[in-house]
C-alpha cells in the first residue's frame, strides 16, 4: 500500500529540517578552506608535508554543497514551500559560479601539485654555519619520507664546529625518531647512526 500523502509530506518536512545544519556546515567549511586555508595548504604541499589532493578540497566542498542545496531547495518546492522558478535560478547560478572557479583550482592543483621541495643537501654542506643550521632545522618540517633521506647528513653534522648546527641537527634527529635515541656528546654520531641503521636508513647518501 502506498504511503498516505500526509505521511509523505511529514517525511519530506523532516528531511528539510534535518538537511539545514549539514548544508550550513559544508558551506562554512568550503568558505573557510577557500579564504583562510589556501596559502597555508599550498605552502604545505610545496614543502611535501601533505598531498596535492588538498588543493581541490575547496571546490569539492562547494560541489557537495551545490548538490545538497539543490536537493534541499527542490524538497521545499515539492512541499509547496518554495517557488520552483526561484529554486532553478539559484541552483543554476551556483553551478555557473562553480564552472568559473573550478578551472582556477585545477590549475593550482596542477602547478603546485607537481612542484618539488628544494633539495637541502647543498645547504646542509654550505660553508656558512647559519645556512647549515637553517637547513638542519628545515629537515624536521619536511614530510617524513623526504626528511629521512637527510638523516645521514644530519648525523654527520653532530660533529660540526658550530654549536648551533649541532643543536639543530640533534633536534631534527630526535624529532624524526620521536625520542632522543642517540643523545648528545662525542659519541652521539655513532649512537645515532646505529639507531637509524636499525630503522632501515642507509648511510652513505646525501
TrEMBL record:
Keywords, sorted A to Z: Membrane, Transmembrane, Transmembrane helix
Signal peptide from the UniProt entry: none
Record's keyword annotation contains S-adenosyl-L-methionine: no
Transmembrane segments: 21-38, 50-75, 87-106
InterPro entries from the UniProt entry: ARM-like, ARM-type_fold
SUPFAM superfamilies recorded: ARM repeat (SSF48371)
Nucleotidyltransferase keyword on record: no
Name under which the protein is recorded: HEAT repeat domain-containing protein
Source organism per UniProt: Anaeromyxobacter paludicola
